[in-house]
Amino acid sequence: MLLEHLAPEGLAVLSADDPFCDQCLGQIDGPVLTVGIRSPAEITARLLEQSPGGQTFLLVAGNEVMPVTTRMIGNHHVTNCLLAAAVGLAYGIDLPTVVRGLEAVDYVPGRLEPIACGQPFSVFVDHARSPEGLAACLAALREVVTGRLICVVGAEADLEASDWRRLGRALEDGAELAVVTSGRRRAADRRTAIDEVLRGFRRPEQVAVVPRRREAIALALDRAAPGDAVLVLGDEVELIRSYLYGGRAGVIPQYPTPMCESSPLP
């Protein structure tokens, strides 16, 4: 549908890694630029190193090659960098200036946003709501985290029961420690939503169910060890910073008790 609004002289920038790219190319009569990590394209990237603190890749545009170092992680971010670079180059901006622009962006709010408060483990906040979004976040973290993945997920609104179950399955498949909490829903709906998420687990007895979001986040942070990563789906950036700067003590008086009938998480 976007292509229908493209002016005849307008430039389309497509990801060659997207399975729909070939189909889209057949619909465009005007100029096109393609980018890709896994597929041949006019503007490509080759990953050099990744860590929870960022990644470095080579940006290749024709005969020009330059390294790019960014604090953001995940292949999806590299693709976004390539798309932005393609637009910049199309407007006549030279590659060194494009690279400086990419490196100047510390983070995008709510897109695996890192929270660094001196803690010996990584913490990220993401606004993902769908099962696919959660799976993509966990996959990106899995590439760079040496320890466990601890994830806090709320049963959010605007999802069907089947989507809540798929959210639970993505959580179980991608994280070692799962903390399920309530979303921003009416009190009468919260338990139903949590139950639907748990139905997506093969082993729901291993899940910590903490209805209060504040306590759920505190539990995840307190269980994190050096080398681990905590992913919180939501927007509680300031709450997390406050808790981490508070020395992980005093903000929440005690560990919450999981609602599931199982032994506490290790």
Q: What features would you highlight for this structure?
A:
266 residues; alpha/beta; six-stranded mixed beta sheet; five-stranded mixed beta sheet; 8 helices; 11 strands; 23% strand; disordered C terminus
DSSP summary, beta strand count: 11
What separation lies between the terminal Cα atoms? Answer: 49 Å
- Nearest-angstrom radius of gyration? 21 Å
- Element string (H = helix, E = strand): EHEEEEHHEEHEHEHEHEH
- What structural class should be given to the helix and strand makeup? alpha/beta
Largest sheet: 6 strands, mixed
Explain what the structure shows:
The protein has 266 residues and is of the alpha/beta class. The protein is built from 8 helices and 11 strands. Helix 7 (213-223) packs across helix 8. It is globular.
Short recap of the structure:
The protein is an alpha/beta fold and 266 residues long. Helices cover 33% and strands 23% of the residues. It is built from 8 helices and 11 strands.
Please specify the SSE layout and strand pairing:
Blueprint: E1 12-15, H1 21-25, E2 32-36, E3 43-51, E4 54-61, E5 64-70, H2 75-90, H3 95-103, E6 113-114, E7 122-126, H4 131-142, E8 149-155, H5 161-174, E9 177-182, H6 187-199, E10 208-209, H7 213-223, E11 229-233, H8 237-245
Parallel strand pairs: 1-2, 2-3, 7-11, 8-9, 8-11, 9-10
Antiparallel strand pairs: 3-4, 4-5, 6-7
